[in-house]
């Protein structure tokens, strides 16, 4: 039997919605979550694709998540919108706040969206891409749980704290990067552990603080930042801007809030949008042209832009569907067995 199951994107979306709603997720949240999970599977970001349905359902069963709360909007200042997720998942809050963020960025040139009190599992590129689809540059960051040691330490302080950026290009896909400030997303180590695979050295230390390539030992120990002190400083910045500054939980506080139940981290998120038309005025074309020159200088020497792998996977998946790890598929299917929660 093959290790993978071939599905269309519609089948991925439908399976995610059914598994979530069967386990008590409200329909609006299930739809928003399934859209992003399908995008993750489509772009071959396996740590944030269908696998996340398992984590969402475990979180629902923990009783911590509000499965139906609807987000509410508040204006903090003319350029800052705040969306309270009321302890539901973050994605509906993002969708609710996006049009306001875009309008504010177009008015003021620079605007922020704060999301508070949200359970947050998702990759950030769908969000910065959605900002770029409106002709704006976008920056997003969020804490998670304190699994990651600071450079020079061996005990978790930071979350895996992703940072994502998108720049709208005159033609074609935007320039996008999105990475954890840990050496790798925790989801990737979890997938290695599920598959009994070793991890590369440099990702984590074990519970005794010793370097390890054992995925399970890594999950028990502490993850490491990417780029040593540089990733460590960026991760600290994210704790400051996307937790302390916005009045929400740090990764350490999110971990404490979890009380060991293993739910999705609960905290806030910060998104910034920049309107090149306001920054550049009459010089818009020249500014965008300058950016294109920089992209050309990268690609003309054979280096690739971040997200090129993802965009190629997207084109393939749209044309042919996706191959889902059979173990993940079977586990998600099993969530449809038994009584509705
Ligand atoms: P990766 O290390 O896989 O990739 C990070 C970025 O680097 C991508 O934009 C990728 O583009 C790019 N990249 C990779 N290799 C190259 C290369 N050779 N040249 C140029 N660019 C390259 O990601 P992570 O494991 O760090 O993170 C994975 C996902 O996990 C992210 O989407 C992140 O948002 C999510 N995450 C979410 C968290 C949360 O709390 N919500 C916490 C942590 C992570 P490409 O995709 O095209 O390869
Ligand atoms: O993969 O590190 C991760 C992660 C944490 C929260 C959501 N994804």
From TrEMBL:
GO molecular function: oxidoreductase activity
Keyword Manganese recorded: no
Record key words, sorted: Oxidoreductase
Annotated InterPro entries: Mal/L-sulf/L-lact_DH-like_ah (IPR043144), Mal/L-sulf/L-lact_DH-like_NADP (IPR043143), Mal/L-sulfo/L-lacto_DH-like_sf (IPR036111), Malate/L-lactate_DH-like (IPR003767)
Entry similarity comment: Belongs to the LDH2/MDH2 oxidoreductase family.
Protein's UniProt name: Ldh family oxidoreductase
Source species: Pseudomonas sp. Hg7Tf
């Amino acid at each position: 039997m093959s290790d993978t199951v071939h599905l269309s994107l519609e089948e991925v979306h439908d399976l995610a919605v059914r598994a979530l709603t069967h386990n008590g997720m409200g329909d609006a949240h299930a739809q928003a979550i399934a859209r992003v999970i399908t995008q993750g599977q489509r772009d071959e970001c396996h740590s944030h694709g269908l696998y996340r349905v398992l984590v969402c359902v475990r979180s629902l069963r923990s009783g911590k998540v509000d499965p139906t709360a609807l987000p509410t909007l508040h204006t903090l200042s003319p350029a800052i919108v705040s969306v309270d997720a009321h302890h539901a998942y973050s994605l509906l809050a993002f969708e609710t706040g996006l049009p306001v963020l875009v309008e504010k960025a177009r008015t003021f040139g620079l605007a922020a969206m704060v999301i508070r009190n949200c359970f947050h599992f998702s990759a950030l590129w769908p969000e910065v891409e959605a900002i770029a689809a409106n002709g704006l540059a976008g920056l997003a960051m969020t804490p998670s749980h304190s699994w990651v040691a600071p450079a020079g330490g061996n005990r978790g302080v930071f979350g895996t704290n992703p940072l994502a950026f998108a720049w709208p290009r005159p033609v074609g896909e935007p320039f996008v990067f999105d990475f954890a400030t840990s050496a790798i997303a925790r989801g990737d180590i979890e997938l290695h552990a599920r598959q009994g695979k070793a991890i590369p050295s440099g990702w984590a230390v074990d519970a005794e603080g010793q370097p390890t390539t054992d995925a399970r030992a890594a999950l028990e120990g502490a993850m490491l930042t990417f780029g040593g002190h540089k990733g460590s400083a960026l991760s600290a910045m994210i704790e400051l801007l996307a937790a302390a500054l916005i009045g929400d939980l740090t990764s350490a506080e999110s971990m404490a809030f979890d009380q060991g139940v293993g739910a999705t981290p609960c905290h806030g998120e910060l998104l910034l949008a920049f309107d090149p038309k306001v920054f550049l005025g009459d010089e818009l074309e020249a500014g965008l042209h300058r950016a294109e020159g920089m992209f050309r200088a990268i690609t003309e020497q054979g280096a690739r832009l971040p997200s090129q792998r993802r965009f190629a996977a997207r084109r393939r998946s749209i044309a042919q569907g996706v191959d889902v790890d059979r173990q993940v598929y079977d586990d998600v299917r099993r969530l449809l067995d038994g009584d509705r929660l």
